[in-house]
TrEMBL record:
<keyword id="KW-0678">Repressor</keyword>
<keyword id="KW-0238">DNA-binding</keyword>
<protein>
    <recommendedName>
        <fullName>HTH merR-type domain-containing protein</fullName>
    </recommendedName>
</protein>
<dbReference type="InterPro" id="IPR047057">
    <property type="entry name" value="MerR_fam"/>
</dbReference>
<dbReference type="GO" id="GO:0003677">
    <property type="term" value="F:DNA binding"/>
</dbReference>
<dbReference type="Pfam" id="PF13411">
    <property type="entry name" value="MerR_1"/>
</dbReference>
<feature type="domain" description="HTH merR-type">
    <location>
        <begin position="5"/>
        <end position="74"/>
    </location>
</feature>
<dbReference type="InterPro" id="IPR000551">
    <property type="entry name" value="MerR-type_HTH_dom"/>
</dbReference>
<dbReference type="InterPro" id="IPR009061">
    <property type="entry name" value="DNA-bd_dom_put_sf"/>
</dbReference>
<dbReference type="GO" id="GO:0003700">
    <property type="term" value="F:DNA-binding transcription factor activity"/>
</dbReference>
<keyword id="KW-0804">Transcription</keyword>
<keyword id="KW-0805">Transcription regulation</keyword>
Length: 272
């Protein structure tokens, strides 16, 4: 029985691609037709069609063209299974990263909601947290930020965490002139497998949802921290040693920067 052939258009329709894609795969030597007539019409055998199917689903899985070319040269099913297992690991890592991205956006939106519902107000919050990397910190003074070169953090272990990180200020509540006042850390709202990144938990805290420019008046932060002490006394709370100011966003309004900052003052109840 004579072998049957598929036309270029048939191959395209069967696989849900354009005729240009069929011709492109031919040009790239991924799937070439078995027969090319003098009038340049191309005809694909059943073997060609199956090969094209392989390329199509590999592309649908996101496999690069170069890797597909290598895959098409498989010797036996062991090669195929081995490639599939390796690429499956790649997809699982991609899914893990996608889950991180989804969680990051969900968590960010959850936190940002407080700036809309209770801007520039104090709240008593429970089970809040931030993550910091103290191996990547700065010192803030009147001249600006100075990176601590001796503890410079190699951020390549968790690139996503580093690239989505924020800035957090640490201040000493009991002594505003304490040497630790003004330390600035690389921070985030998501966890990390990196051992240098630590979770700072706030089982209970006073949180101020600051919207404005804390740098326009340097006394502003001192006033807010004084409010924290008064608020703690009113609610029979004891302030912990440090407070943390986590900067999420900034924008320019009327030629002046506006920052969205959560100021966390960890507390415990009197008598604990």
């Amino acid at each position: 029985m004579a072998e049957k052939y598929f036309k270029t258009g048939d191959i395209a329709k069967f696989h849900g691609v354009s005729s240009d894609t069929v011709r492109y795969y031919d040009k790239e030597n991924l799937v070439t037709p078995s027969v090319v007539k003098d009038n340049r019409y191309r005809y694909y055998s059943l073997n060609d069609a199956l090969k094209f199917s392989n390329v199509t689903w590999l592309r649908e899985l996101g496999v690069p063209l170069k890797a597909i070319k290598n895959w098409l040269d498989y010797k036996d099913l062991t090669d195929v299974s081995g490639f599939n297992e390796t690429y499956l690991e790649t997809l699982l890592l991609e899914r893990e990263l996608l889950d991180k991205k989804i969680y990051f956006l969900q968590e960010l939106n959850r936190r940002l909601a407080s700036f809309q519902t209770k801007p520039n107000m104090w709240e008593v919050v429970k089970d809040n947290y931030i993550f910091t990397c103290k191996g990547f910190n700065f010192t803030a003074d009147d001249k600006g930020f100075n990176i601590n070169e001796s503890n410079l953090y190699d951020s390549q272990e968790d690139v996503f965490w580093n690239k989505t990180s924020m800035i957090v200020y640490q201040n000493n509540l009991r002594d505003f002139h304490h040497p630790k006042k003004g330390e600035v850390y690389c921070s985030n709202i998501i966890s990390s497998i990196d051992q240098d990144i630590k979770k700072i938990s706030f089982p209970a805290a006073l949180r101020y949802n600051f919207v404005g420019n804390p740098f326009s008046n340097m006394r502003k932060m001192q006033e807010i921290l004084k409010e924290a002490k008064q608020h703690a006394t009113t609610h029979q709370l004891c302030l912990e040693e440090y407070c943390y100011s986590l900067f999420y966003l900034s924008q320019i309004k009327e030629k002046s920067p506006v920052y969205y900052v959560h100021i966390y003052c960890p507390v415990h109840y009197t008598g604990e």
